[in-house]
Amino acid sequence: MLRSVLSPIGAWAIMLLAGFAGDGTAADLEVTDQRGVSQQRDFFRQKRAHVIVVGVDQCLDKQVQPRKHAEHDAKALFDIFHDPERLDASADNVQLLLGEPKQIVGAKKATRDNVIAALKTAMEAMGDGDLLIFAFFGQGASVGTTGTQLCYLMADSTLVDRATNALTDRDIARELRKVEKAHICTFLDVSFNGFDNEGLAIPTPANEAYWYEPFLGKKTATQFLPGRVLFLASNGDSTGYDLKQHGVFAESLIAGLEGEADKFGSQSDGLITTSELQIFLSEKISRLMKAEGVMGRQKHYALFGALADFPLIINPGAAQEAETRLKKFEKLATDKRLDESIIAEGRRLIGRMRKSEVDRILRVQYNRLADGFLTWTEFSQNRKNLLERYRISDANAARFTDQVFEVISVLESGYVRKINEYELVNGAIEALYHTLDDPLPEDIENKLRNRKALRTSQLKELLTDVRSRLGVREELVKERDLNIAWNGMLATLDNLTTYYSPERMALQSQFLKGNFVGIGVNFQIDPKTQNVLVSTPIRNSPAFRAGIGAGDIITAITKEVAKDGTPLNQLETVQTKGLSQEEVVDWIRGKEGTAIILTVLPAGRAPAKEFRVVRSQIEQETVFGVTRNGDNSWDFLFNRTKGIGYVRITMLSENTVDDLRKALDGLNNKNVKGLIVDLRFNLGGTVAASRGVSELFVGKQVIYKERDRERSETSIRGSTDSMVDVPIACLVNRETAAGSEIIASSLQDNSRGIIIGERTSGSASIQTLKEFHGGTLKYTIATFARPNGKNLDRLNAGNNPNEWGVTPDTGYTLSLSPKDRENLLKHLQEGEVIPRRDGKLGPKRSNFKDEQLEMAVDYLKKQIR
Questions:
Q1: pLDDT in tens, 428-458
Q2: What span, in angstroms and rounded, lies between the C-alpha atoms of 359 and 608?
Q3: What is the pTM assigned to this prediction?
Q4: Which of 47, 416, 635, 761 is the residue whose CA sits 20 to 30 A from 644?
Q5: How far is CA 163 from the centre of its chain?
Q6: How many Å is the Cα radius of gyration of the chain?
């Protein structure tokens, strides 16, 4: 089965899922993530680590909101890195810059010139494989007129002159690009909207992708430089949450670097790595926010390039223990005249905790040997048994290679560009070793360097050899080895080409089809009370039929059966207060036709009631109107006096076209004279739905142009007449993406509608879905152009970097601040709520003034006259 899919850029979603993004090799960058604690201490003593920490509480410009703990956070972080027991670096290599540096020995004023000077000094001293840690706590803003350039506000910065007295992303990129083969770790706690812009035209940042590029670099259009990692306190839209002494991000970061993050495999090894810190921050921030009663208020993000799992700092107590044990092992190795391979393996495992289960078990054996709890004979036998247990057969290794090359064969015939077998196999091999935290063997590395000699047969032999060496591992069983290899290969192509496991594909299919198995209730976690609050039941869903309504609080969930439908020996109940949204969904999810019991406070008031709800197929609404009718269907007439209709399309699924056709039929029967098409926050869906919706508006005109791997262009036209012959005003914003951009551009280029709002996302490539080994292979087969031939996809802008997306018509651009955009989304979602049937009052709708909608109405009123 093949199905074409439109996917948005989704920068945050993509990067959060991609623990492996990039195609660096050990030849490009020293593999520092294999060092043990002793080697890392030597690394620091060689002055190969550089730290720059910047904190600004208050800028010179009072229009910039103060950051309560920024300088205190920066000072606390600086103290950790300045501790010789943790990072034994030269004092000159660790720099602190503050808004008010008085009484802090060695601190400098946080000005643009001083930060640039610090970066220059570090870059001039750094060599291949060296480490730079850069941290900033403060406020930021966009620079210029497009929102694609950003800056970080310093102590002497002003909003009006921020292009010259703030640290810009170009300043940062200019310095960091000087060292492409270094490890660079960045910590950012910044809001790009923490100011009062009265009297100033400061555009909203266009896309998050722009502000991480200076720190992560670009090896290709879709891949970061290897050895780069970026930790973000938030998505930059708002200021981070503050605790009593520190911001929640800094509080967590400090705790992790002081030693709490040193816990891979439940055994401390004396080193805190970027991946350990990533895991720790996610857990710690969640716990702190839950304790504060504001769960979900702040989420941290971590973006990794290849080879970006490396040590940041030493954990002194655990480091001393590891070094003592290593000395005992060295003495034993000398006394027993151990083989060099055993000595190297022992050093590697005692000196550093590994991700792999077999390595963790083997590390325990080496530790027991060094501590005298095992004799050499006992250890040797244990090691032999362990390795034999984890050996893979030659036949299974060869089968693995055949299945990897099946994907390569599919891509050779269908991918949008010509592929390179070597790059794909190299990506697969690196992904396997990276996932296992194993060093790339020297002989494998040497073979990969000789790429010209590696034809298909040699690449197959190499891949089979790699799989045999890796053996049976916890991380590689149940076809996880194939998932890792496939996605490692596909990551070298573009960030939308991927392999979905059956579980991931099931979730994706729900989005594309517009239906899923469940009880049909939208809910949120109340940030103040941590209660599970029903936003609205879905129309005609089991929850709706059972009588659950908006404003209800779900206090408990009781299971009668397991997820696969098997009856439980006894009921399982969980109290929902304090659960995360994901945990609530996990408890509710189950097999179609099975029941779940919900304990509910109607409209949030006692007494509680129990509802037994049977799971069934839920059809999601994707076409919304102005208000609900008595039967909870939609009234699409916005202004009865002027005859203005309104349809809001939230996604493009299999049922969207039919639902929209019904809505337009109803409006035509009412002699509508103008139509508002609201595509704001629509992230796209299937190509078929995008084409079908566009056809309803533009008829047999060109809807889009498709460019294939040969760069040939095919114009796609509608096949039936338009259903709408009245003026159209189309609302878009920066969250309008993929298929919804096709609709907007077809309206604009065919002069069928005016575009109002904000520039769209600029994401327009076509992926096809192919069933493959129980899962689904998704790969890019073409890109889109607008009907007028101009580029639509931002990542493929080519020689016209500013030619992407859909820009509102002249005079109809109306950008919103992130806060207003957030309030708009909330307002629109509140309009979807189904009124309660028991007469009790549900949640009130916010009083938000939708200025973009008002602009559309004003335009249509003029056209109708």
A1: 999 898 887 677 888 999 999 888 888 999 9
A2: 52
A3: 0.64
A4: 761
A5: 29
A6: 29
Distance CA 30, CA 155 (A): 37
Query: What does each C-alpha distance from 406 to 85, 190, 238, 555, 806 come to in angstroms?
Result: 51, 45, 46, 49, 38
Question: Within a 10 A sphere around the Cβ of 665, how many other Cβ atoms?
Answer: 10
Asked if residues 181 and 188 have their Cβ atoms less than 8 Å apart, the reply is no
Q: Which pLDDT value is given to residue 743?
A: 97
State the residue for tokens 């803003």.
Answer: 141
Number of H helices, E strands in the chain: 26, 33
3-class state of residue 851 by DSSP: helix
Confirm if 71 and 55 have CB atoms less than 8 A apart: yes
Which positions of the chain have pLDDT values less than 70? 1-34, 206-211, 219-223, 264-266, 294-299, 306, 437, 507-515, 527-528, 795-799, 841-843
Q: Which residue has the tokens 């030619």?
A: 803
Q: Which residues pair with 565 in a beta bridge?
A: none
The Cα–Cα gap between 592 and 780 comes to 33
Whether the CB-CB separation of 492 and 423 falls below 8 Å is answered with yes
DSSP per residue, 117-183: HHHHHHHHH--TT-EEEEEEEEEEEEESSSS-EEEE--TT--STTHHHHSEEHHHHHHHHTT-TTSE
The set of residues, in sequence order, having a beta carbon less than 8 Å from that of 64 and lying 6+ positions away, is: 58, 139, 153, 157, 159, 194, 195
Place of tokens 């878009």: 732
**With 0-12 CB in 10 A as exposed, 13-18 as middle and 19+ as buried, what is 185?**
buried
First to last CA, the chain: 51
Neighbours of 492 (CB within 10 A): 24
DSSP 459-492: HHHHHHHHHHHH-S-GGGTTTHHHHHHHHHHHTT
Alpha-carbon torsion 262, 263, 268, 274, what sign?
negative
Q: What's the pLDDT score for residue 654?
A: 87
Q: How far apart are CA 8 and CA 141, in angstroms?
A: 25
CA distance 551 to 532: 10
693 three-class SS: helix
CA distances from 7 to 15, 209, 438, 762 (A): 15, 16, 34, 11
CA dihedral 509, 512, 514, 519 (to 10 degrees): 30
Chain center to CA of 593 = 34
Q: How far is CA 479 from the centre of its chain?
A: 24
Tokens representing 171?
């300043």
Residues 194, 64: Cα–Cα separation, whole Å? 6
Which one-letter amino acid corresponds to residue 317? G
Helices (H), 292-375: 316-336, 340-351, 357-370
Name the H helices within 547-686.
581-588, 656-669
> Read out DSSP for 13-59?
HHHHH-SS-----TTTS--GGG--HHHHHHHHHTT-EEEEEEE-S--
The 8-class DSSP code of residue 92 comes to: G
Which residue is listed with tokens 């990969």? 448
Structure tokens that stand for 402 in this block: 């055949």
- DSSP character for 260? I
Neighbours of 612 (CB within 10 A): 12
User: What pLDDT digit, counting tens, does each position of 685-704 carry?
Assistant: 888 999 999 999 999 999 99
Q: Is the sign of the CA dihedral 331, 335, 340, 341 positive or negative?
A: negative
pLDDT (tens digit, 9 = 90+) per residue, 645-676?
999 999 998 899 999 999 999 999 999 999 99
What is the identity of the amino acid at 519?
I
Residue from 825, 824, 818 nearest 236 by CA: 818
Distance CA 18, CA 7 (A): 16
The region, left, alpha or beta by phi > 0 then psi within -120 to 50, assigned to residue 447 is: alpha
Using DSSP bridges, classify how beta strands 702-707 and 713-717 pair: parallel, antiparallel or unpaired: antiparallel
- The percent of residues above 70 in pLDDT, for the chain, comes to 91
Enter the DSSP assignment of 576: -
